[in-house]
Predict the 3D structure of the following.
Amino acid sequence: MTTVKDWAQPYASQRSPVLGRNVVSTSQPLAAQAGLRMLQAGGNAVDAALAAAMTLTVVEPTGCGIGSDAFAIVWDGQELHGLNASGRAPAGWTPEYFDKLGGIPEKGWNAVTVPGAVSGWVELSKRFGKLPFAQVAQPAIDYARHGFAVSPTIAKLWALGLAKLGDQPGFKECFAPEGQAPQAGSWFQSEAHARTLEEIAETLGESFYRGALAQKMAAHSQANGGVMTAEDLAAHRCDWVGTVAQPFGESVVHEIPPNGQGIAALIALGLLDAIGIGDQPLDSAETVHLQIEAMKLALADLAQYNADIEHMRVHPQQDLLNPAYLAERAQLIDRSKAQVARYGAPKPGGTVYLAACDESGMMVSFIQSNYMGFGSGVVVPGTGISLQNRGAGFTTEAGHANQVAPGKRPSHTIIPAFAMHADGTPQMAFGVMGGPMQSQGHLQMAVRVLRYGQNPQAAADAPRWRVTGGNQVSVELGFDPQVIAALRALGHEVTIEEGHGVFAFGGAQLILREGGHYVAGSDPRKDGQAAAY
């Protein structure tokens, strides 16, 4: 089934899409090559995704680490599966605990929920992998032990992370052993990181949650003002949660259910379908305006309702994606002006990303993240385990569905996405990194590829926009000045963000299925590379 209608490369990058029967697309070339090695060794798309994911903890520590969280959507050739490998709050995280601290911090142990990525790696390997887990982990171990050359983009992010988090326990020992962040082109290696990955591989993650590594994490927490215990780590589990889905034209877009923010992308796509987007040129002010207005409404609902699904007061599929509710909300979109969005009442009277696909038809959409750059800044001495700061995703607002509580998952920014054809066959694995940009990026990729037939590389290259609050919108350098002027005339308060797009607009990776092969796009904003054979 052919999907691409437009093979042009009209944007600044001029990078060509990558085609092949086996493809890996990631945010770092070494990780893409690690995944391809697994495919060439007889592994499948899950083996490739895991090799890439573990390698990214080494070569792109500015976005993910061994102490990250993760989510995945897997098409196994017959059925779609969704995995939530995000962690939960320690037992000591009560609202009263954070009241005494003056709120939830963004760094340090009191920002760290139980890290879930390791459990996700192991679970995916057990259920779907073909190769031994230790073999899949070997590229990451080798890069950690023998080193790699730091790219200019990662070096810049590394320096920013050191400036912000250099005071956190264990950070400088691991990431600035010579007192400064590694320079672009310099060689970096971490024997501690290699040993930890070996221990995780040898024990299939048991050491990380119930063994020596868990004891080291718990002891470091207790010694540095945290309340995470060995019991908190031992209680962790990842969950097969399926997906939530929204029809969009001739496709159906799937996301992981909350606690992830993917529901916002689906709401916005549903609103756009309801108003019939697609009658104006793709990059016109009219088309961009409608996307922005739909996204604002979706983000308003996200902020009000999104939480650990066990604590939500509305059902994501039945309520927030109810066709009648979406039609009602769509009527709020004015084609002639920008408006400030407010959440609705859906009930009567309520980051690194990668994709891997193989010739058997298996497709994987996978994401893992520290949250804010290096995350909490906490690194467990002698292990290379850098920990996320997902606790900052909670609120302390009394009565809010996302209020912090023991054993609860916070509202999460990282989300993998997947598109199916309306006939039930797989179409595309895709994602966009970058905190609150992610659901907005999913919307823009879906509109470009699924509605307008743009090829994945052009979709990744295209300058992006980002809603920042009220009628405020940021756009990348390269955005058409005439479109910016037209958006401002509609009432949008447009800011042009200078500098490297990765900081605010994330990095996109896409793999689109075209008959018996794949077409991949990778984002030049973040050293992205697709590798295929």
In short: The first helix runs from residue 29 to 40. Residues 111 and 391 are 5 Å apart (CA to CA).
